[in-house]
Amino acid sequence: MKKNRKILSAGLPSILTILLVLALTALCALSYSSGVSDLKLTERTVQMTGDYYSAVAQSEEISASANLSGDPEIYLLSRGAEEWDGDYELALDAGSGRTLQVIYRIQEGKTVVCYRGLGGSAEEEWEEEYLPVYQGETAWK
After folding, report:
1. Do residues 139 and 121 make contact, with C-beta atoms less than 8 angstroms apart?
2. Residue numbers of the domain that contains 104
3. Who has greater pLDDT, 70 or 24?
4. At residue 47, does pLDDT exceed 70?
5. pLDDT band at residue 125, thresholds of 50, 70 and 90?
6. Whether the Cβ atoms of residue 100 and residue 89 lie closer than 8 Å to each other
7. Is the residue at 124 inside a domain?
8. What are 3-24's pLDDT values in tens digits?
9. pTM as predicted
10. Is residue 139 part of a domain?
11. Among the residues of the chain, which ranges form H helices?
12. What is the maximal distance between C-alpha atoms in the chain?
């Protein structure tokens, strides 16, 4: 009987060690796959954010160019803007199938960006409330 106890006492730590190594290997594999997924998501987020800010910069360049041109209305219409209740709406590509909807308002001969909204495509109808970005006057004088 003593021989059976020695075999059992030597085999139990070996089995536990093997199970522990298997569990740690599975945890390592899960951590690696999670890290790869996080990397892909981060790269996609960086690309989408860069595309969005490029579209915002383009909208500001259009506003500045419209102000430098002699006639902002004609400049905005030449860039493909559509007149909408006295404002001018322009859809800019924001990457990944998204569109940056920009509404320009002309106040005292100057072009002001009134609204920016991110949508899925240029054909979508916008139902959101009008969100003013800048109304042309500031509290600081």
Report:
1. no
2. 2-119
3. 24
4. yes
5. low
6. no
7. no
8. 555 556 678 888 999 999 999 9
9. 0.66
10. no
11. 2-68, 72-78
12. 105
Rounded Cα distance, 79 and 89, in Å: 10
**Any idea what the Cα angle at residue 72 is, between residues 80 and 135, rounded to 5°?**
100
Name the domain count of the chain: 1
Look-up: residue for tokens 């493909």? 80
62 exposure class (CB count in 10 Å sphere: 0-12, 13-18, 19+): buried
Inter-residue contact 116 to 133 (CB < 8 Å): yes
Q: Is 70 exceeded by the pLDDT of residue 74?
A: yes
Query: What separation in angstroms does the CA of 44 have from each of 69, 73, 95?
Result: 37, 37, 11
Does 137 map to a domain?
no
124-132 own/partner pairs: CB under 8 Å, 24+ apart: 124/99, 126/101, 130/103
The answer to whether the CB of 102 falls within 8 A of the CB of 59 is yes
Q: Could you tell me which residues come within 8 angstroms of residue 65 by beta carbon, excluding any fewer than 6 positions away?
A: 75
Rounded distance between C-alpha atoms, residue 53 and residue 104, angstroms: 18
The DSSP secondary-structure symbol of 125 reads: P
Q: Is residue 133 assigned to a domain?
A: no
